Amino acid sequence: MKKGYFFSAVSALSVALMCGQVSVSLAESALSASQTDRYKQAKAAGQLVEKGDGYLKPGSGADAALIALMEQVNRLRKAKYQDVAQKTGAPIQAVESAAGAKLAD
Questions:
Q1: Helix or strand holding residue 48 (H, E)
Q2: Alpha helix (H) ranges present in the chain?
Q3: What angle do CA 68, 47, 103 make, to 5 degrees?
Q4: pLDDT of the residue at 48
Q5: Which of 44, 53, 54 lies closest to 21 in space, CA to CA?
Q6: How many domains does the chain have?
Q7: CA nearest neighbour of 36 among 44, 28, 24
Q8: SS3 state of residue 102
Q9: What is the pLDDT of residues 53-95, one digit of tens each?
Q10: 34 has pLDDT over 70
Q11: Which is more confident, 46 or 19?
Q12: Per-residue confidence at 19, pLDDT binned at 50, 70, 90?
């Protein structure tokens, strides 16, 4: 990859992130109301933890049902990250890392 192309892709990625294309709500929009409530409660309680790569991992006290929800959210995130990568020309790893940094805030 040429240096100029990489910086263009990163700039496009930055714009995409600032416009909110990659956010916590991306997962919530595809979940039922009860799943969204469970997701928010689990994150607040530390049962779901953000990793630096833009995905969730189970935390303390995560049961099988919560892990299944986590896996669903991670699949939804992956699909969104792939979409952003395709639209911006950025590598998927860059999108995942940028989203991970934003989600950690």
A1: strand 48-50
A2: 3-18, 25-28, 33-44, 64-88, 92-104
A3: 90
A4: 96
A5: 54
A6: 1
A7: 28
A8: helix
A9: 999 999 999 999 999 999 999 999 999 999 999 999 999 999 9
A10: yes
A11: 46
A12: very low
Question: What number of residues does the chain have?
Answer: 105
CA–CA distance from 27 to each of 5, 6, 67, 69, 100 (Å)? 30, 28, 15, 10, 14
Return the exposure string of 56-94: e unless at least 16 CB atoms fall within 10 Å of the residue's CB, then b.
bebbeebeeebeebbeebbebbeebbeebbeebebeeeb
Q: Using the 8-state DSSP alphabet, how is residue 20 labeled? A: T
Structure tokens at 53: 């790569």
- For residue 56, the SS3 value is strand
Could you give the CA distance from residue 55 to residue 100 in angstroms, rounded to a whole number? 7
Residue 74 structural domain: 3-104
User: Rounded to whole angstroms, what are the CA distances from 93 to 36, 64, 85?
Assistant: 26, 28, 9
